[in-house]
Predict the structure of UBC core domain-containing protein.
Amino acid sequence: MLKLRQLQKKKQKENENNVSMQSHVSAARVRLIKDLDSLDLPPTVTLSIKVSPHSTDRMQPPRLEVVVSPDEGYYNHGSISFKLDFNEVYPIEPPKVTCLKKIFHPNIDLNGNVCLNILREDWSPALDLQSIIIGLLFLFLEPNPNDPLNKDAAKLFCQDQKKFAETVILAMSGGSVDHVLYDDVVAH
């Protein structure tokens, strides 16, 4: 009888510890974990977890790295990395998405800021990580010169798509365009 009570108390203590651990994981992290579990990546995208959403350290928000490697379009054969920083109010607010490579693109500036409508005015808590990744991939398949962050790239895209394509190839291989040296993002 004494052993049975000891076992019950031990089990109760373990359950309390488990509940305590779960309560330290914020709703934002629970949602991100759910998004990661249901993720269906296209073959042209890879994802790595830099700071896990399972971490209970609120000083280190979850961070993912996504690499987009388009297999068609202007950025074919490129391999472009993005950092996704999630805050504690996700999915109410989208993650901060930053391009880690300097590329010549109408919707990405030289500081890595990304102009994608679903990361700004069209964001909704109904959107998820899958939506963000598809949006990033779509940026490389269909650049949008009508909402540019890099006005020079957008202007060239609108004026001369053949010259734009040549400039993208030059920039992707680490070339210089208008005195700006771009990163080599060609997949080797």
Summary: Residues 160 and 166 are 10 Å apart (CA to CA). Strands lie at 45-51, 63-68, 80-85, 96-99, 176-177, 180-181. The chain has five helices and six strands. The chain has a mean pLDDT of 90.
